[in-house]
Write a structure and sequence with these properties.
By secondary structure, the protein is of the alpha+beta class. The chain folds into 2 domains: 1-48, Laminin (Ribbon); 52-84. Helices cover 33% and strands 23% of the residues. The strands form 2 sheets. It has a 3-stranded antiparallel beta sheet with strand order 1-2-3, with no helix packed on it. A two-stranded antiparallel sheet has the order 4-5.
Length: 84
């Protein structure tokens, strides 16, 4: 994009960008948006959410409990087998 072909938006496009700065591309003859950090989309209408795994510790606990129960079950089977 050539910087010479970009200028500030006309007054009629003041509300074009929802969460960003409007620039007018003279070659394309249309407004474009430069989105603020955290927004995306043609008119900066999409909020980009950071995704965090909140259940990772819960997953480890579940795997630990499941593994412990499996180990106890195996020990019980071996104990019963040896006892006979």
């Amino acid at each position: 994009m050539d910087l010479k072909s970009i200028q500030s938006c006309f007054e009629e496009h003041n509300d074009y960008c929802l969460n960003g700065i409007c620039v007018f591309h003279t070659e394309l003859k249309m407004p474009n948006c430069r989105c603020l950090v955290g927004y995306s989309g043609e008119r900066c209408e999409h909020l980009m959410l950071n995704s965090y795994t909140q259940y990772s510790s819960e997953c480890y606990v579940a795997v630990g409990i499941g593994g412990g129960m499996l180990l106890i079950g195996m020990i019980a089977v071996i104990y019963c087998y040896i006892r006979k």
